[in-house]
Amino acid sequence: METTRSHSHCCARWRRCTDLSRCCTSTRIWTRGTRIFGAEYTHGTPFRRAVEEGIVDTEALSHVGTRGPLYGKKDLEDDRRFGFGIYTSADVFRRGVDEIVDALRDRVGNRPLYVSIDIDVLDPAHAPGTGTPEAGGMTSRELLEILRGLRELNLIGADVVEVAPSYDHAEITSVAASHLTYEFISWYAGLAESRKESIVGGASRSAE
Ligand SMILES: [Mn+2]
Fold it and tell me: What per-residue confidence (pLDDT) applies to 89?
């Protein structure tokens, strides 16, 4: 569990892992453009580079809460071609949390799961302290309920990125980010507890 500056930091960690499925929340689609302002590796291209490097399972990877502007006309077309699941902020509102959770669970299946939260996925009303606030975002309640809906999945890593305290007001963003972090720690603890129970249960069964 980490807090980092942007999704591009995640990419380095993904190189060390295989067979992961990932859920990413952000305002923007992180496959934007083959190059941004002439640069190949930027905070706007980690998923495109990850696909090219073959370190993500595109059948399982999903973007949730997207709504921001595009870098180029082909961005949405490329994302569809890569095979990502894309659930926009409007999808979450119109289809509802339960339907989005079902879709994410179907995509992830039994794979180990890495969740990356860009705090700007939340509406600026819920997270003003970030570098690229964008109107029309998810509520903190919607995001927390989506995470709670995924609780039985095998979480092996998570991060919360792009919290900018200097832009925050009344610690609104910090409250959201700290609760998301708390949610991940609780998720880990629940998984550890159930593993312990299955080991103890297995041992007692074998002793009988
Ligand atoms: Mn962002």
Answer: 94
